[in-house]
Design a protein that fits this description.
With about 200 residues, the chain is of the alpha+beta class. It has 6 helices and 6 strands. The chain has a single domain, classed as Nuclear Transport Factor 2, Chain: A (Roll), CATH 3.10.450. β2 and β3 form a beta hairpin. The protein is globular.
Length: about 200
């Protein structure tokens, strides 16, 4: 087994498992049970499609519906977000969303088997978000994952995933900050668009 690729796939799984399904408008339910249910759904998608293309579409469809991309984008750009015009914010969210989806769906292989354990209590953070800790296993590889969720319109939405102590928001924030400092917003958008037109293979 290629442990490096497996580790990358575990990171991919972490992002998608953290994506919430639907919940009652007035009560989103228990966040840990919510994450468990999403993991089961993801496994079903990976098992259902023997070919990559329909499997990737299934994963992308789930991500499209339930990841809070505007919140993820706002927190990633931090103080740079408010400096952008509304159209620039909208354009960034669109390209950032495409990049995240492309980056993660291409790492999945049909038929991959994972198990997930939940250790430790969920935490309610100062901003009202809820962090659910877990560990994902695939073969001899594992990744410690924390799902960061918030409620929006009575449903859980995912806006960050912390994998082996590395926050997706903080990771992208550093990358994008460096590009913004050197190339400005047009340079960042150019890089995102170029990445989004690359082959998934």
């Amino acid at each position: 087994m290629n442990l490096g690729r497996t580790k990358a796939t575990l990171a991919t799984l972490a992002i998608v498992v953290g994506i919430p399904w639907s919940a009652a408008a007035a009560n989103p339910g228990d966040p840990q049970e919510f994450v468990k249910a999403r993991y089961n759904e993801l496994q079903d998608i990976v098992k259902k499609f023997p070919d990559k293309a329909p499997m990737q579409k299934g994963i992308r469809d789930v991500m499209e519906t339930f990841v809070d991309y505007p919140e993820l984008s706002r927190r990633t750009l931090a103080d740079q977000w408010e400096k952008l015009k509304k159209k620039e914010q909208t354009d960034f969210v669109g390209e950032f969303k495409k990049m995240i989806q492309r980056s993660y769906v291409k790492r999945f292989e049909p038929g991959t088997v994972f198990t997930i354990d939940y250790a430790g209590d969920r935490r309610t953070e100062a901003d009202g978000s809820v962090t659910v800790p877990s560990t994902i296993h695939s073969g001899r590889s594992e990744a410690k994952v924390e799902y960061v969720l918030r409620t929006l319109a009575g449903k859980w939405v995912a806006f960050d995933v912390v994998i082996d102590d590395v926050s997706m928001i903080r990771n992208y924030r550093k990358q994008f900050h460096d590009i913004l400092q050197k190339e400005g917003f047009p340079g960042l958008m150019g890089r995102l668009r170029k990445k989004n037109t690359a082959s998934l293979e």
